[in-house]
Design brief:
Elements: E1 23-28, H1 35-46, E2 52-58, H2 63-71, E3 79-83, H3 90-93, H4 97-109, E4 116-120, E5 137-143, H5 150-153, H6 156-160, E6 163-167, H7 172-175, H8 179-189, E7 195-198, H9 203-222, E8 242-245, E9 252-256
Helix pairs in contact: 1-2
The chain binds guanosine-5'-triphosphate and magnesium ion (MG).
Residues 35-36, 64, 120 line the site of magnesium ion.
């Protein structure tokens, strides 16, 4: 048998030069629990040893991106904002196009050198989670000011996000929350998936968070990090209505809630 003639101009790629993609870490949770603060903390702690980027999601503004840029923890250009329009959870779960494009643009702008892109969801209700198609790993953030019972209420993010952060533990005494109890309740609700009680004033808690992030990065680099879907949010309806106009005649033909 003669050797097959190689196709002119065709060389088989050995793939060793293929750019490796940054790990995408999603941060979600209710309004005001400290998502932007947690991202600022990670940037402050990690930016001297990791190439980082950030994508924020806000409904109508770029408030989170502006907060993070003004915190001075990362070059302003490494922080990009996605304005999601009506429903913050939609852009991280149902139609992830705007977020995926923002991440890819960041990676291209930095010559595929980024090692981790942090994605902040718009502050939403208790049940919003990221699509595993958008992020490799996700953190759900609660705070003690939301009350000690919140962790027991469950929902996909609380129960099955890769990490649950119970934030602002320093506020426990002021809001009458027994922090160790809240962390224990959360751990039970999560079937012993990891929970970290965090405060920016508690160095040990920050170190535990960094250890967890480093662990996920090591898995990502080894190719063993498999995105897990915490599950869809609960069925819900919104207070607003949409009027859809279809081609024929231009008259509104349907009003629906979704
Ligand atoms: N006491 C205390 N306050 C904190 C801590 N972390 C964040 N905060 C405060 O919590 C408030 C909300 O923090 P953000 O980081 O803006 O919360 P967020 O979840 O990004 O808010 P949205 O994006 O609006 O949903 C701010 O006033 C922070 O300063 C903490 O560890 N302890
Ligand atoms: Mg925020």
């Amino acid at each position: 048998m003669p050797e097959p003639t190689p196709t002119p101009g065709f060389t088989l790629s050995t793939a060793t030069s293929a750019p490796s993609r940054a790990m995408r870490l999603g941060v979600c949770g209710p309004v005001g629990t400290g998502k932007s603060s947690l991202i600022a903390l990670l940037c402050r702690e990690l930016s001297d040893r990791l190439e980082l980027g950030v994508v924020t999601n806000d409904i109508y503004t770029d408030e989170d991106a502006r907060f993070l840029r003004s915190a001075g923890v990362l070059d302003a250009d490494r922080i990009r904002a996605v304005e999601t329009g009506a429903c913050p959870h939609t852009a991280i779960r149902d139609d992830i196009t705007a977020n995926a494009m923002a991440i890819e643009e960041l990676e291209e702008d930095y010559d595929h050198r980024l090692e981790m892109v942090l994605v902040e969801s718009g502050g939403d209700n208790l049940t919003a989670t990221f699509s595993p198609a958008l992020v490799d790993v996700q953190v759900f953030v609660l705070d003690v000011a939301g009350g000690g019972d919140v962790a027991r209420k469950g929902g996909p993010g609380i129960e099955r996000a890769d990490l649950l952060v119970v934030n602002k533990t320093d506020l426990g005494p002021f809001v009458g929350v027994d922090v160790p109890r809240m962390v224990a309740d959360a751990t039970a609700a999560r079937d012993h998936r990891p929970v970290i009680g965090l405060s920016r004033t508690d160095r040990d808690s920050i170190d535990r968070l960094l250890t967890w992030v480093d662990g996920r990065l090591a898995e990502h680099r080894a190719g063993s990090l498999v995105p897990v879907d915490p599950g869809p949010m609960a069925a819900h309806s919104h207070a607003h209505e949409h009027t859809h106009t279809h081609d024929q005649g231009g008259e509104p033909v349907g009003v629906h809630h979704h």
